């Protein structure tokens, strides 16, 4: 049954048909691999290797620093040829560059892993494996699985609502690895002991729902929620509300209302870490868009530079104008093909010059569409105006800090006002003000 | 293979860096205005059919004057010329279609200039006008005789003569306000008097050549235009539905559930034209979801009050202007509750989005 949600949303073209039916294809790693020490939210990892060190698949090359951080592993075997500062997705960070010897010699699995892992050990293994959220936000997963003692978690939510246009990596993962995902759910359920497991998917991913249902047979806690395909259906806060009717309090976390949410792919990674003892060294990424001759869903070794997947996908049939890490609604544009596919690379979207239409900004006609599509019920035009007039206090009163930066307001604006840009700037200004006080 | 292709790299392409989102809905403010113009062609055609070519002529003059006024004003104050957004064309068409049968060209010109310059441009131009220019122009036109009498001849018609007759008798024929058949059923009458047009004729627009203003004569044409705008997603069907629904309900109750009486009110005067093109105006309506519910309901209550009990049978224009004036305050009271908050946001400064953008140039540079 498809669940109609009252959540305010937009309906960008899905553009998923290019790769919807293409099975995940495992690809070889190139000769040079790049491992940024910061592929996650939180403190960057500290490099443990030196130039000349030899590494294997699964060698720890970067160690997590502090509570919110994640380990980094080599995904190939070979030799460290350089450790340098490079501009990557999250800014300028230390990167370990490895020359791949092509033999893929593996480190032994984590000795504690297996079919009977004590609940206390599970978050330890997740942390050791360097798992961070695979839906794009890259929050270290072990932190979510260690909720504060005073907070009873009763609901586990798997986010399979892949609402970003063009992406099919979650969809293919659900279809092809449903059993591994469900095993990951059982592992986490053993730790959190939840009453209910929801899996949220969109109604354009029916096969995924069927595969998961089959994998969850006899596991009564699991309920699959088929949600209307609209943007941003996969936003964490909205998914929680659509599944449980609860709202995360402003400035709070899902744990505050008894929920833990993670991307479906993350549960597969958890399964691999806890049951098989494997660190996070690969992920599924969709490489797609009009310029790409043969769009694909790839199983990529993390650290593969983006330049090295283009020819695998047939090269360009049209010149790209924008290369987006992620999707067109929230993704980040890149120019440098040496930037690697990392833990949070759900897809890489290539757009042609025609698809990148920069229309001239016009005056607001007060159509109030931005207000009608804001999933957190902000009034984007008012925040944008307050910011442009320099009234940061008013931007804050209007709830700028509650913005989830989904991009709906800028997307819908018929006058092409850069609403989200202004709200982002307002947020930065508010943060600076708070620091100054 | 001997002819191995060289590796494709991003460095070989001219790429742009930009903030998300990277795709946009395929529409524009100009396109929206164009849809409204297309919809307005229907009442224009119906008006021309029933009143003759003067409708085209008057509407043409109103459009031309509106566009030229906006252009000249913007050149004069050295602002970006915005006539290509087509909103002045929409205002002009609405003014033309709001004029009564037999209106002179110079009255039309004056009304258009006042509407564009004083009601639209001086408050800041498109989107910043608190009052609907077309409605404002129409009301100024309607009030002209009263203004002239009061301030020029020093005679207050409102106190010297009794209500509706004062306006009609004190004005030259071409300045008589729009809704003539409506005159028969207003002023307190709770039933349809003898001699009124048949409902069917009212609906089609055949009012004997003297009913309603130029564009509002055919309810049928306006309803088709409304349907077009709804299907194009230009207007939210909730707004006209709430306006017409609330008004119809009040009229039904007032007349002791006389369905025919209610229908006469619906199909006469500016009611449907306003429901389609004026209540739904973006700039002068509500912007919050609740504000967009309160605006049509409030306007409907006022319209009914004016029609049942007032000096002018045409309360639609006044109702809209009153709602235009108070909607920013209502909007502020009913701001949507932000996700994860228990209370509505509290904004301590001015709420309206019509404030001038003082520091805009400074801020957009960095």
Automatic annotation (TrEMBL), chain A:
Superkingdom to which the source organism belongs: Bacteria
Domain called 4Fe-4S ferredoxin-type: residue spans: 352-386, 394-423
One Pfam family it belongs to: Complex1_51K
Alphabetized GO MF terms: 4 iron, 4 sulfur cluster binding; electron transfer activity; metal ion binding
Cellular component terms (Gene Ontology): plasma membrane
PANTHER family the record matches: ION-TRANSLOCATING OXIDOREDUCTASE COMPLEX SUBUNIT C
Identification of the protein by name: Ion-translocating oxidoreductase complex subunit C
Organism: Alkalibacterium subtropicum
Annotated gene: rnfC
From TrEMBL, chain B:
InterPro entries documented for this protein: NqrB/RnfD (IPR004338), RnfD_bac (IPR011303)
Any one of the GO CC terms: plasma membrane
Transmembrane segments: 31-50, 105-123, 135-152, 210-231, 240-257, 263-281, 293-310, 316-334
The UniProt record lists the keyword Ribosomal protein: no
Name of this chain's protein: Electron transport complex protein RnfD
Alphabetized UniProt keyword annotations: Electron transport, Flavoprotein, FMN, Membrane, Phosphoprotein, Translocase, Transmembrane, Transmembrane helix, Transport
GO biological process: electron transport chain; transmembrane transport
Organism: Alkalibacterium subtropicum
Any Pfam family the entry gives: NQR2_RnfD_RnfE
């Amino acid at each position: 049954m498809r669940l109609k949600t009252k959540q305010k949303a937009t309906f960008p073209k899905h553009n998923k048909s290019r790769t919807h039916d293409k099975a995940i294809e495992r690809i070889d790693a190139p000769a040079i691999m790049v491992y940024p020490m910061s592929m996650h939210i939180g403190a960057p990892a500290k490099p443990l290797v030196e130039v000349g060190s030899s590494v294997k698949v699964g060698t720890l090359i970067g160690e997590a620093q502090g509570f919110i951080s994640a380990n980094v592993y080599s995904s190939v075997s070979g030799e460290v040829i350089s450790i340098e500062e490079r501009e990557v997705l999250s800014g300028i960070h230390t990167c370990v560059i490895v020359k791949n010897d092509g033999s893929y010699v593996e480190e032994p699995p984590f000795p504690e892993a297996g079919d009977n892992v004590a609940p206390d050990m599970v978050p330890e293994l997740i942390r050791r494996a360097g798992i961070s959220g695979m839906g794009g936000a890259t929050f270290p997963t072990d932190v979510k699985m260690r909720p504060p003692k005073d907070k009873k978690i009763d609901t586990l939510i798997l986010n399979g609502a892949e609402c970003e246009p063009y992406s099919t990596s979650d969809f293919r993962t659900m279809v092809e690895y449903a059993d591994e995902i469900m095993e990951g759910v059982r592992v986490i359920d053993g730790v959190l002991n939840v009453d209910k497991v929801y899996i949220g998917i969109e109604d354009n991913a029916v096969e995924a729902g069927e595969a998961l249902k089959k994998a969850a047979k006899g596991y009564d806690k699991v309920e699959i929620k088929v949600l209307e395909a609209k943007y941003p259906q996969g936003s964490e806060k909205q998914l929680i509300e659509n599944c449980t009717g609860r709202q995360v309090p402003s400035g709070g976390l899902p744990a505050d209302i008894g929920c833990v949410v993670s991307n479906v792919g993350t549960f597969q990674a958890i399964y691999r870490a806890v049951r098989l003892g494997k660190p996070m060294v690969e992920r599924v990424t969709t490489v797609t868009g009009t310029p790409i001759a043969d769009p694909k869903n790839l199983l990529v070794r993390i650290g593969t530079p983006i330049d090295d997947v283009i020819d695998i996908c047939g090269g360009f049939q049209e010149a790209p104008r924008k290369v987006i890490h992620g999707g067109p609604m929230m993704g980040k544009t890149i120019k440098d093909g040496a930037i690697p596919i990392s833990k949070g690379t759900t897809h890489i979207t290539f757009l042609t010059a025609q698809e990148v239409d920069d229309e001239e900004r016009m005056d607001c006609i007060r159509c109030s569409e931005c207000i009608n599509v804001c999933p957190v019920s902000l009034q984007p035009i008012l925040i944008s105006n307050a910011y442009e007039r320099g009234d940061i206090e008013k931007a804050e009163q209007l709830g700028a800090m509650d913005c989830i930066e989904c991009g709906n307001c800028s997307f819908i604006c018929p006058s092409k006002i850069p609403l989200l840009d202004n709200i982002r700037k307002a947020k930065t200004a508010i943060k600076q003000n708070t620091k100054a006080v | 293979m001997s002819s191995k292709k060289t590796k494709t790299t991003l460095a070989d392409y001219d790429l742009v860096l930009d903030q998300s989102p990277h795709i946009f809905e395929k529409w524009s403010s100009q396109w929206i205005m164009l849809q409204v113009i297309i919809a307005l062609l229907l009442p224009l055609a119906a008006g021309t059919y029933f009143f003759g070519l003067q409708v085209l002529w008057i509407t043409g003059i109103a459009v031309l004057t509106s566009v030229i006024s906006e252009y000249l004003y913007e050149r004069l104050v050295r602002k970006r010329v915005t006539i290509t957004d087509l909103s002045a064309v929409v205002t002009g068409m609405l003014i033309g279609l709001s004029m009564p049968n037999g209106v002179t060209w110079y009255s039309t010109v004056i009304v258009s200039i006042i509407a564009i310059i004083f009601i639209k441009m001086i408050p800041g131009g498109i989107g910043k006008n608190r009052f609907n220019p077309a409605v404002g122009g129409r009301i100024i036109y309607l009030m002209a005789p009263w203004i002239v009498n009061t301030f020029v001849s020093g005679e207050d018609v409102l106190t010297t003569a009794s209500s509706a007759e004062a306006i009609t008798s004190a004005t030259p024929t071409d300045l008589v306000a729009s809704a003539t058949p409506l005159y028969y059923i207003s002023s307190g009458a709770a039933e349809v008097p003898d001699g009124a047009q048949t409902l069917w004729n009212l609906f089609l627009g055949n009012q004997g050549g003297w009913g309603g203003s130029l564009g509002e004569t055919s309810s049928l044409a306006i309803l088709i235009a409304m349907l077009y705008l709804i299907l194009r997603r230009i207007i939210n069907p909730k707004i006209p539905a709430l306006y017409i629904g609330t008004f119809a309900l009040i009229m039904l109750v007032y007349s002791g559930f006389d369905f025919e009486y209610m229908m006469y009110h619906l199909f006469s005067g500016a009611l449907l034209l306003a429901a389609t093109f004026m209540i739904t105006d973006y700039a002068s309506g509500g912007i919050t979801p609740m504000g967009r519910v309160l605006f049509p309901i409030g306007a409907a209550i006022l319209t009914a009050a004016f029609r049942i009990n007032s000096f002018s049978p045409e309360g639609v224009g006044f109702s809209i202007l009153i709602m235009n004036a108070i909607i920013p305050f209502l909007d502020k009271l009913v701001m949507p509750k932000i996700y994860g908050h228990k209370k509505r946001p509290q904004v301590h400064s001015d709420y309206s989005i019509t404030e001038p953008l003082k520091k805009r140039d400074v801020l957009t540079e960095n």
